[in-house]
């Protein structure tokens, strides 16, 4: 069945972990409900990347929410993709935008948002947020509204 879907990661016993950024590991499957608008949400509480200047590790929870169209991202391939940032050097803001753009290219979703909640380093945390709504659809205005209001009620800083 998974071969029919074109999935090579799911159920594989020979999983290999890329040691650097690799969007090529991402896989999709067909959305059986493309006429329904619904959110799919992923939480990755163990995301790591490297500071491009110091080489020190950065840790974050990455939250990805999207409204699928015809394709959906397969979760194991998404885990491997996010793991591939482990030795990748980029600023926090770049990481979340790269993730979003790679997933847009992969799936062409109706809507997507990516939020990185990075743990403090040097006494400050950085929480970049980006989103996208498919142009010419209702999701374009949803993206604008969510961007304008995404952090109206920020969490307490003491919960990390």
Portion in beta strands: 25-35%
Shape: flat
The count of DSSP E runs of length 2 or more, i.e. the number of strands, is 6
Class of secondary structure makeup: alpha+beta
End-to-end gap: 41 Å
Please characterize this protein's 3D structure.
The chain contains four helices and six strands. It is α+β, with helices and mostly antiparallel strands. Strands 2-3-5-6 form a four-stranded antiparallel sheet. Strand 2 and strand 3 form a beta hairpin. The radius of gyration is 16 Å and the shape is flat. The N and C termini lie far apart (about 40 Å). About 25% of the residues are buried. The mean pLDDT is about 90.
Quick overview of this protein structure:
The chain has helices spanning 2-5, 75-83, 92-107, 138-149; strands spanning 28-30, 40-50, 57-67, 71-73, 111-118, 129-133. The radius of gyration is 16 Å and the shape is flat. It is of the alpha+beta class.
Keywords:
alpha+beta; 4 helices; four-stranded antiparallel β-sheet; two-stranded antiparallel ribbon; 160 residues
Write the layout of secondary structure elements.
Blueprint: H1 2-5, E1 28-30, E2 40-50, E3 57-67, E4 71-73, H2 75-83, H3 92-107, E5 111-118, E6 129-133, H4 138-149
Antiparallel strand pairs: 1-4, 2-3, 3-5, 5-6
């Amino acid at each position: 069945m998974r071969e029919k879907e074109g999935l090579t990661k799911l159920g594989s016993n020979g999983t290999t972990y890329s040691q650097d950024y690799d969007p090529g590991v991402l896989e999709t499957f067909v959305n059986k409900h493309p006429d329904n608008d619904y959110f799919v949400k992923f939480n990755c509480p163990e995301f790591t990347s490297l500071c491009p200047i110091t080489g020190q590790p950065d840790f974050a929870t990455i939250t990805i929410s999207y409204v699928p169209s015809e394709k959906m991202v397969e979760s194991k391939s998404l885990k491997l993709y996010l793991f591939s940032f482990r030795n990748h050097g980029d600023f926090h803001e770049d990481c979340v935008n790269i993730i979003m753009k790679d997933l847009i290219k992969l799936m062409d979703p109706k809507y997507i948002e990516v939020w990185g909640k990075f743990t403090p380093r040097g006494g400050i945390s950085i929480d970049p947020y980006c989103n996208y709504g498919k142009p010419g659809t209702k999701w374009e205005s949803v993206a604008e509204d969510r961007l304008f209001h995404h952090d109206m009620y920020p969490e307490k800083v003491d919960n990390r």
